[in-house]
Amino acid sequence: MEIIDFKTPEFILAEIPIKDGSFNDKRLWVYCPSALSLMEFVCGNDFEAVPINFFTKKEYINTDGVAEEWGIAFTQNNCEATEVDEQALVERAWKFFKSYLEWEDRHIDEERVSKMN
Questions:
Q1: Domain ranges of the chain
Q2: Which of 48, 91, 106, 115 has a Cα-to-Cα distance from 9 of 20 to 30 A?
Q3: How many Cα atoms sit within 13 Å of 49 on the Cβ side?
């Protein structure tokens, strides 16, 4: 019998699964189990004003060449209690989230091409 090594992922992406047309439909979070911390990622391009104090902002250029400004805010921050460096955690979370955006863009582009054929 094969022994399977179940590993907890470094980050978990979360969104509200049932969309209702509200502001909440576009909200995205990244949770880090080892830091017991939750970060919200908000695309500034999607909203006129966002009532959130961002820890930092990052830019992502999508496959259409459009610059997206993403704000990152801690919703739950336990970095001090878990002895995790906040800045380092946010940088790793951004790398994870950016990989997700790139993956999503690739699939959108593939869908566009398949509909054209």
A1: 12-116
A2: 106
A3: 1
